[in-house]
Design goal:
2 copies of one chain form a homodimer.
Chain A (H helix, E strand, L loop, with lengths): L11 H11 L4 E5 L5 E5 H17 L7 E5 L4 H12 L3 E4 L6 H11 L3 E4 L4 H7 L8 E4 L14 E3 H6 L15 E6 L9 E5 H11 L12 E4 L6 H4 L1 H8 L2 E4 L6 H10 L4 E4 L1 H14 L3 H4 L4 E4 L6 H11 L2 E7 L6 E5 L10 H8 L3 E3 L4 E5 L14 E6 L22 E9 L4 E7 L4 E3 L2 E3 L1 H9 L4 E11 L3 E10 L8 H9 L10 E4 L13 H7 L8
Parallel strand pairs in A: 1-11, 3-4, 3-5, 4-8, 5-6, 6-7, 10-11, 10-12, 12-13, 13-14, 24-25
Antiparallel strand pairs in A: 1-2, 8-9, 14-15, 15-16, 16-20, 17-18, 18-19, 19-20, 21-22, 23-24
Helix pairs in contact in A: 1-2, 1-3, 1-9, 2-3, 7-9, 10-11, 11-13
Chain lengths: 545, 545
C-alpha cells in the first residue's frame, strides 16, 4: 500500500524556484574573470537561468544531452547549473587544470554538444576546439565588450546568446532520477571516469549540506565557495545555497591569499569551503599582512576537504582567525560528502589538544551514507577505533557505475562502493582514514599505513616531501621504503638522521627498511602525488642486505 | 537518461540504523506512565524495535496492515514507530483526547489489526474493545508487574510480547512511497479523515527538521518533545532525532508546568516543541515558582505550532527564560511543517518590538513546500504582504488524498492542496494567516479577518474569550458579530465599552455591528473553538436595525 502523499519529484529547478520565492534578495557575489566584483540575487539567477534554458532549446539541446563548462566559480556558471540541468540536459563541468589531452578525452567521451568557457581559457579552447568532435559551438562566458578574438569555430557570446531569450520558462517535470550533471574523476591511474549525478541525488545531498550536523549552510551564512564549481559541483554549494537562501561568495580565478582574505573581510564571510592548498595561502597572507584577523573577520567555520586537514591548519585557523575547522571527507563518486567531523556534546569541555586530535579525523557518517569496514574477503570488521579495514559506502548520492560503464561493476554484493581507502571507525562513529588500499604496506600479516609514515617524516625539519611505498620482501611479504625530497636549505640530512627522528614517532616495526633521497616527486595535473610513477621508478629496487 | 546513482530507498528503518551506528549512546529519556524516569539509547531503541518487528511477524501482521496506538510520548511508543513502520506495516497513532465515539470510528475506519495502549487508557480500551471490530488483540505497553486487570479480550503484555523475540531482524527493502503511518485530523466538521504518510515523506520531512533553517535539530540538542506522538508523529521528531542523533526527552502524560519545568532543567533541554496551551502552564509555573529560570535552564529555543503563538508568549519566553520562540505552522495534511519563522540576517539589529512583530507571523516557506495565494476563482495573487488570499500548498510531504479517498479529490488543477486558511505573504517570504476561509467576513467585496478582530477583543481587560462570525447583511453581504465570554470578575462590561475599546484597535469599517455576551463557548474534544456550533446558535440572529 502506498502512502497518500503528493508525488513531487526532487528536481534542481525546484531549488532555484524556492530561492527566488523565499530568498529573492539574498546575494550571489562573484569576482569576475574580467576583474570587478559582480553582485546579483537568487531572483536574478533564476531569471537568467530561465534565459539559459530557453537558449538551450534554441540551440537544439535535448534532455540528456551533455553541455560542458570550463569555468571558475561565478554567477554565470551558477546560471548554467540551474538553466542547463533545469531544462533536462546534463551539465558537464570540466576541470581546466587537467592536462589538455585529458580535457580533450573527457569532452569527447562525454560527447559534449556545447562548451561554455571563461575567457581565461580562450587559448586552451582555441587549441582543443578542432579535436572536440561532438561540440557544435563554443560560448564565451562574457559580454560583447569583453569577447576574445580567437580562432574558434562557432564562437558565441554568452550575453548575446541569453540576452535575446525570454525571461520566463516553464521548467519541465520529469523523473527525479534523471541525470543532472557529470563530473570526471581526476584518477591517478588510467583515463578519467565520469560520475553521473541525478536530480534526486543532488537535492538529497543539498538537504545534508543544509543540516546542522552536515555543513550547516543557512540563510544567515555568507559562504565563500573556494572549492571549484568544476570539482563535484563545488561540494553541492550552488544547490544547497538555493535550498536555504545563503549568501554565496564566488572567488572566480583569484585563489591567492590576498584576494581570498579581502573577500572574506569585505563580504562578511562566516563560512568558507575549500581544499588545504588554498587555505595555506590564505593563512600565510593573514599571518604576514593582517594586524587583527579575529577582529577584522566574522569567519566562524572553515570546511576543509579534498585532502586531509593538517592538525597545524586546524590550530592556525582557530588561533589566528577564531574559526573552527570542520574536516569533511568525500569523493567525486559520493557527490561528495561522506563524513563530517563535527563535535559531540561531550566534547564541549575538551582541551584544544584533545579537540585537535579529533578534528584531524575525517568525521562521522551522516544520514544518507552507510559506512562499513571489511577485510580482504569482504567480511565486516568491527567499529572499535583500532581495526583498520577497507572502507565501503552505500547511499542515495553515491555512484553505482561510471559513465558508459567504464570499469564495469563497482559495487559489492551488498551494493556498497569500495572507496579504495583503509580506515578505522571508533565507538562514537568517527572515521579515520589510515591509508589508500593500494598504498598500504602488508608486512607479516599486518598493515603499515604509508600515510602515517609520510606524515611522520614530513614533520622532520629539512624534509620537503615524503612518500612511502612497499617493496617486496622475502620474509615479511612487503616492507616500507621511504622516499624523501629534501628542503633546499637542508641538503645534508641523511638516512640515519631520518631513522633516528622516526624512532620516536612510530612503532619500531613500522620503521622503513631504507630511506632514499630524490630531487622531485611525480605529481598529477591536479597536484596529487603519483605513487604509480614512484613504484615504476623503484621497480628494480632491492633493500640492502 | 538516468543518473548513475545508487537506487537506495528512503526508509524509516534506515533512520534508526543510522542512529544506532553513529549515535549509539545518545539518549531517549522518558517520563513513564508508571511514574519513574526511564533512560535508554538509540542502540536500545533499535534493538527493541527489531523485537517489535519480529513480534509483528509472529502476530501475523503483514506489510500495509494498520497497527494502532493509544499512547503518550515515551520510549515504547518510539520503538513502535520504528518497529511497526520498519517491517512494512502502518503505524496508526490515535489521539486519546478525541471523544470515545471518534476513537471507535477511527479504529474501525483504519481497520486496525492490533492496538497498543498505555495503561492510563485501560478503562477506555475496556469500554471500546467490543466495538473495535478489526482488532485481534490489545497490547498494554508495560511489563508484567504493571499489567492492568481489565476485561479486555486478547490482552497482551508488551514486554512479554517483545521479550521473547530475537533482537536481530533484517529490515525489508521496499518502495519508499509505501505507507508508513496514519494520523486522523481532528477536524471541526464531520468525521475525522485519515492522512497516510509514506516512508519517503517521513524521511524528507526529517531532513527539513534537521536543517538549520528548519527546526535545527542536531546531535548537540536535547529536545523536549511535548507535541504528542499521536499528533502528526510529534512533528516528525522521532524520525528527525534518529537522523541526527539528538537527545530526545519524552514527557509521558505529565504535561503540567512543574513536570515540564523539571524535565527541562534536569535533562539540559535546549529545544522544546509544543502547542501554546502547555507553554502557558510552563510559563505560569516558572513565574510563580522559579527564582532564576535563565540561570537554571539552558533552554535556547521553543518551537510553537498547532495554533498561533501569541506575542506575549514569545516575549515571556525571551524575558523569563532567555529562549527564542520559533513560530511554526503546518497541518496534519502537511506532515506537518509548512512554514517556520526564523529570522533573516537583516533582522539581527531589530528591536525586541520589531522582532516580536515578525515572530507572530507563521514564517517563511521551507524548501519542499510551495505556497501560493489565490482568489476565489483560483487565480494567483501577489506576495506583497497586504493581499490576502486562499493559501494553497504543494510538496512531497503534503497529502494528495485522504485515506479511503474520504472527501474525494483535494487538489486543485496545479496539484496544490487548499489549507482552508486566508493568508498574506510578504516580500521576504513571511506568511501570515489572517483567517480561516470559512470564517472570514465578506463585507462589501472586502474581507474582514475574524481572527484579527478576536485577537483585538481578547486584548480588552475583562474579556475571557471572543469569537467573531459573519451575519448576513442586506447591503454589505456580511457584517461581523462579536461574541464574548466575560471574565468572572468583570461581569459589567457591555457593548459600548467593547466598541469603544476596539475603535483604537481596528479599522472603522471592521467594527462589529453588534456585541453579544454568552456564558461559554462551544469547543471540540481537542479544545478548538467550534464556530460551526456558534453559527448554529446564532442561526436566527438579526442585527438591530
Amino acid at each position: 500500500m502506498f502512502g497518500l502523499m503528493q508525488d513531487r519529484p526532487l528536481l534542481i529547478s525546484s531549488l532555484i524556484e524556492h530561492a527566488a520565492a523565499f530568498h529573492p534578495h539574498a546575494e550571489i557575489v562573484s569576482r569576475t574573470v574580467e576583474g570587478p566584483i559582480h553582485r546579483c540575487t537568487y531572483a536574478d539567477i533564476r531569471r537568467r537561468a530561465m534565459q539559459v534554458a530557453n537558449a538551450m532549446q534554441t540551440l537544439g539541446v535535448r534532455p540528456g544531452d551533455r553541455v560542458g563548462t570550463l569555468a571558475w566559480n561565478g554567477y554565470r556558471h551558477m546560471e548554467l547549473y540551474f538553466g542547463v540541468s533545469g531544462m533536462g540536459a546534463v551539465l558537464h563541468t570540466i576541470n581546466p587544470r587537467l592536462f589538455p589531452e585529458q580535457i580533450e578525452y573527457i569532452a569527447n567521451h562525454a560527447e559534449d554538444q556545447y562548451i561554455f568557457f571563461d575567457v581565461s581559457f580562450t587559448a586552451l579552447i582555441e587549441k582543443l576546439a578542432p579535436r572536440m568532435k561532438s561540440v557544435k559551438a563554443f560560448i564565451a562566458m562574457t559580454d560583447r565588450a569583453n569577447m576574445p578574438t580567437a580562432d574558434i569555430p562557432g564562437l558565441i557570446c554568452y550575453e548575446d546568446l541569453i540576452g535575446r531569450e525570454p525571461v520566463e520558462y516553464a521548467w519541465p517535470e520529469f523523473d527525479e532520477r534523471a541525470a543532472s550533471s557529470l563530473c570526471y574523476t581526476s584518477g591517478t591511474t588510467g583515463n578519467p571516469k565520469g560520475v553521473l549525478y541525478s536530480h534526486r541525488s543532488s537535492v538529497l545531498h543539498a538537504f545534508l549540506a543544509c543540516s546542522v550536523d552536515g555543513l550547516g549552510l543557512a540563510a544567515a551564512e555568507s559562504a565563500l565557495v573556494v572549492v571549484p564549481m568544476f570539482h563535484v559541483n563545488a561540494w553541492g554549494m550552488p544547490y544547497a545555497g538555493a535550498m536555504c537562501g545563503a549568501k554565496l561568495v564566488l572567488p572566480g580565478p583569484a585563489m591567492d591569499g590576498k584576494s581570498l582574505y579581502e573577500l572574506i573581510r569585505d563580504e562578511g564571510v562566516t563560512l568558507a569551503l575549500g581544499v588545504p592548498t588554498v587555505w595555506q595561502m590564505l593563512l600565510q597572507h593573514a599571518e604576514r599582512n593582517a594586524t587583527d584577523p579575529k577582529r577584522e573577520l566574522v569567519l566562524r567555520r572553515v570546511v576543509i576537504g579534498g585532502s586531509s586537514a593538517p592538525r597545524s591548519m586546524c590550530e592556525a585557523f582557530e588561533t589566528l582567525m577564531g574559526a573552527f575547522v570542520v574536516h569533511a571527507w568525500g569523493m567525486t563518486e559520493m557527490s561528495p560528502i561522506g563524513t563530517i567531523c563535527n563535535l559531540l556534546p561531550k566534547h564541549k569541555r575538551a582541551s584544544l589538544e584533545q579537540r585537535l586530535d579529533l578534528q584531524v579525523k575525517q568525521g562521522r557518517g551522516v544520514y544518507g551514507v552507510e559506512l562499513k569496514l571489511t577485510d580482504e574477503d569482504g567480511n565486516r570488521l568491527p567499529h572499535d577505533g583500532t581495526t583498520a579495514g577497507h572502507l565501503k559506502v552505500r547511499g542515495p548520492w553515491i555512484a553505482n557505475a561510471y559513465f558508459h560503464d567504464d570499469g564495469g561493476s563497482i559495487l559489492d554484493d551488498e551494493c556498497f562502493f569500495d572507496t579504495g581507502d583503509i580506515a578505522t571507525i571508533d565507538l562514537d562513529g568517527y572515521m579515520h582514514i589510515t591509508d589508500r588500499a593500494k598504498d598500504v604496506i602488508k608486512s607479516g600479516g599486518e598493515w603499515i599505513s604509508s600515510i602515517d609514515l609520510e606524515n611522520a617524516a614530513v614533520g622532520m625539519p629539512g624534509v620537503a616531501e615524503a612518500a612511502v611505498i612497499g617493496i617486496a620482501h622475502p620474509k615479511w611479504q612487503e616492507r616500507p621504503l621511504l622516499i624523501i625530497v629534501r628542503k633546499p636549505d637542508c641538503p645534508l640530512i641523511n638516512k640515519d638522521d631520518v631513522l633516528q627522528y622516526l624512532e620516536s614517532q612510530v612503532a619500531r616495526w613500522w620503521l622503513p627498511d631504507d630511506v632514499v633521497f630524490i630531487e622531485e616527486m611525480p605529481h598529477t595535473a591536479t597536484g596529487k602525488l603519483q605513487k604509480m610513477a614512484l613504484r615504476q621508478m623503484f621497480r628494480d629496487y632491492r633493500f640492502p642486505a
